[in-house]
What we know:
CATH class of the largest domain: Alpha Beta
Helix content: 25-40%
Amino acid sequence: MGLDISKTAIDKAKSSYGEDIIFDTIKDNNFTKVIESFEGKIDLTICLETLSYIKNWREVVQDISSFSRYFYVSLYIPENPIGFVLSNSDLIDELNIYYNTVEKFIYNDENTFFLGRNKKGLK
């Protein structure tokens, strides 16, 4: 299953992967419906280059921890960021509240790659 808030991203994924995988958009950024539809259990959530655009990104990380066993984040944070995530350390510190680090890689002090396992031990 693939979910995204962007219909364009969903259309591109459908063209790449065909009908073997179900794709849908998250309507109105409503994660609650996603949680309910999967009974609160998703193996992996992937967040690529999006958290900087979300004002309440810390709440989003917390929300994701309520239903996702693993969380993968890739985020470019420049020296003088204009987005809402202001530093790699802020990002990693927040992720480590809810997730144990499985792998972490920071490239050139700007690109953060993080894979974490939920501390709640969701099954």
